[in-house]
Write a structure and sequence with these properties.
mainly alpha, single chain
Length: 90
């Protein structure tokens, strides 16, 4: 029985590991894009250090929110996949 339980748990672990890896990848890219955008806009418009940092904070907060939405949806899809459901909304 313990072998059966171990076999059932392995694919679930792999699916969640893929979801977590995707969230890390997408989150890093989105937050990096926000920081780079703040740096570029601050430099082009000569905003100064303080305004550039404020712009960066606002953009990175938005990027963190987008990453959270992506993580929530990725977890929902992986959970639905593990239950065998075709529709992740159920």
């Amino acid at each position: 029985m313990s072998i059966q339980a171990k076999e059932d748990k392995s694919p679930r672990f792999g699916a969640y590991l893929i979801a977590i890896s995707a969230v890390i990848l997408v989150g890093t890219e989105v937050i990096g894009l926000a920081a780079a955008t703040a740096w570029a806009v601050g430099g082009l418009l000569h905003l100064g250090a303080i305004l550039t940092l404020v712009l960066g904070a606002v953009l990175c907060a938005g990027a963190a929110w987008v990453t959270w939405i992506f993580a929530r949806n990725a977890w929902r899809v992986e959970s639905a996949f593990q239950r065998g459901s075709e529709n992740p909304e159920s």
